[in-house]
């Protein structure tokens, strides 16, 4: 039969063969009467709808219902009505959310590369990025409050999504929805999220020292930093207190500032003793970073052209009075040791930590922004807070499924690993073709040769799914 998403059909068949979604049926017990479709079947339909790039739940009746091949590949004869799925989401409670989290943890344990990370003295640490992002919604929704929402006007209401990601593998480890006025600075919320992530990753106490946690300025306060030190974790966090950052950076002598050739900024080691607790033999460093605001750079350029004949003394004075923007990175990473007698090595180590923190922006784009754009994370909203939590957890499962599928095929075609979640959902999964079933199982898939991506990657897809005795070829469909 014809399908607009044959590669997604292959992913669905692999999920069936390996019983990847079986924990959902085992753990999730929603108290709702089953007439034609069980509650978990309805959640499965919604998961498939997310992978089909459905922006809202009501598209289950239009976009998903006509994709019969995709439904069959995931073990569904036909989809439930969208109104029935909405009622299932609305009937979920906190116990169901906990059950879903438990099911996700079992799925994660069986398929995650993060769980297979090799810990050791000479091996790279497991990097965890923790962030808070806004989910704007009506003020009448449960848990909706005024708070900070990026790129939204003041007074916007919504909820906050707390997320822990394994950066090397682009996997979502754990996430939870909080009220809209929740901030990053709360130590209690931070403890809850970090301990839940440790449970999902099944980390032993001895492994915690091989974690490297990266945090933005919202988490950069003394209680959180001291807690991380007490747990023995490595971390890089930006200090959230701007006046204190300015004061610490003022303690760096003029000759101690080093230039970053990649960016318009300078960095230096703060010599002032930190106020945070430290463990013996595991020092904690503070790196000051300063840069000229873009507007000031433009003004300085014009001033330099006008005052080209100014004396050297006046130029030095002008440079010293520039209103730099200051930040401080608090760093506790094993193996770092800035020696007074080797300034070149110290400068290189400092620069590597600054650049490592810069990579956090790339991870945020690959994880949070990709889910908002590619999986419609912001567009699907429920009045019920628990219903919204279930939607978010389904999006988490969809994200990890895409990442794992990418890993399966990237073994044979590394270029596929460079495509993000949005590109996979929008372009790779949307390659048209035909699917042949026999006894309820896919035996052949034909990809349209008119699609450039199909011609480019079909050999890798064919080679991988040949292991499952599925024939993949190019055709005229």
What does this structure look like?
With 477 residues, the protein is an alpha+beta fold. It has a domain at 105-372: Transposase Inhibitor Protein From Tn5, Chain A, domain 1 (Alpha-Beta Complex), CATH 3.90.350. Helices cover 42% and strands 18% of the residues. The protein is built from 15 helices and 14 strands. It has helices at residues 6-17, 22-27, 39-51, 68-73, 82-90, 94-111, 187-201, 222-231, 242-250, 294-306, 312-320, 343-374, 385-410, 421-428, 452-465; strands at 2-3, 126-136, 145-146, 157-166, 171-179, 211-215, 234-238, 258-260, 265-269, 285-291, 325-332, 433-438, 441-448, 471-475. Strands 2, 3, 4, 5, 6, 7, 8, 9, 10 and 11 form a ten-stranded mixed beta sheet that branches. A hairpin with a 4-residue loop joins strand 4 and strand 5 (171-179). The longest helix has 32 residues, at 343-374. The radius of gyration is 26 Å and the shape is globular. Residues 304-321 have low confidence and may be disordered.
Strand-helix topology:
Elements: E1 2-3, H1 6-17, H2 22-27, H3 39-51, H4 68-73, H5 82-90, H6 94-111, E2 126-136, E3 145-146, E4 157-166, E5 171-179, H7 187-201, E6 211-215, H8 222-231, E7 234-238, H9 242-250, E8 258-260, E9 265-269, E10 285-291, H10 294-306, H11 312-320, E11 325-332, H12 343-374, H13 385-410, H14 421-428, E12 433-438, E13 441-448, H15 452-465, E14 471-475
Parallel strand pairs: 2-6, 6-7, 13-14
Antiparallel strand pairs: 1-12, 2-4, 3-4, 4-5, 7-11, 8-9, 9-10, 10-11, 12-13
